[in-house]
Each structure stands twice: as structure tokens, then as C-alpha cells.
Design a protein that fits this description.
The chain is mainly alpha-helical and 114 residues long. It contains five helices and no strands.
Length: 114
């Protein structure tokens, strides 16, 4: 019984080490690869648009797609109203944190109403 328990512990340690490597290697390889190379200016310019486009994709998916990935224009009225509120708040405050908090509160309050 003690040998079986010892084998389980070794197995778990090996799994933890492999999982740590699987998480670390994809993060380290770009640093290793790009630390000795000069990144072209066009690539840096292009990369400025990636966060905005990813955020827009997530927002559109959350507002206009159902759980079964069907497009709906008016399926989630509370999310659409909250998105309009967030756009207005973001335009006037230029603050991401205030916009996110306002959006969360708006969705929460509007989901109680709908």
C-alpha cells in the first residue's frame, strides 16, 4: 500500500512538472526568439490594432450571438442597452476601468429588469 501511495505521489509530481513546462515554454519561446531580433516598424504598427479588434470581437459575440452561435439582433436587449451606456461613458471619461465597472453594473441591473 505504501509503495502504491509513493507511485501516486511521483506520478502527480511528474504531471505538475509537465504542466508547468507546458505553461512556461509558450511564454518563454517568443522572448527567446525576439530578444535578439529587431522587430520591424510595420509589425509594431500592425500590433497596435490587435487588442482593439479582439475586444470588439468579444463584445460583438457577447451581444449578437446566442449560446448556440446563431446571430440575433435583438436577442439580448439588456446587453445592447448596456453596450450603448458603456460607449457613452467611455467616450466622455476615456477610462477603461470606469467603463468596465459601469458595463457590469448596467448588465446586472438590466438583467434584473428583463
Amino acid at each position: 500500500m505504501e509503495q502504491l501511495l509513493s507511485n501516486k505521489i511521483v506520478y502527480h509530481i511528474i504531471v505538475i512538472i509537465l504542466a508547468a513546462l507546458a505553461a512556461f515554454i509558450p511564454r518563454y519561446l517568443p522572448v527567446l526568439f525576439f530578444s535578439t531580433r529587431k522587430i520591424p516598424e510595420w509589425f509594431n504598427e500592425w500590433m497596435k490594432y490587435v487588442p482593439v479588434s479582439l475586444f470588439a470581437t468579444l463584445v460583438v459575440k457577447g451581444i449578437f450571438l446566442t449560446g448556440s452561435y446563431h446571430f440575433t439582433l435583438f436577442g439580448y436587449p439588456e446587453r445592447i442597452i448596456a453596450a450603448v451606456i458603456v460607449i457613452v461613458i467611455a467616450y466622455f471619461t476615456r477610462s477603461m476601468s470606469i467603463s468596465v465597472i459601469a458595463g457590469l453594473v448596467a448588465v446586472w441591473l438590466l438583467s434584473l429588469a428583463f
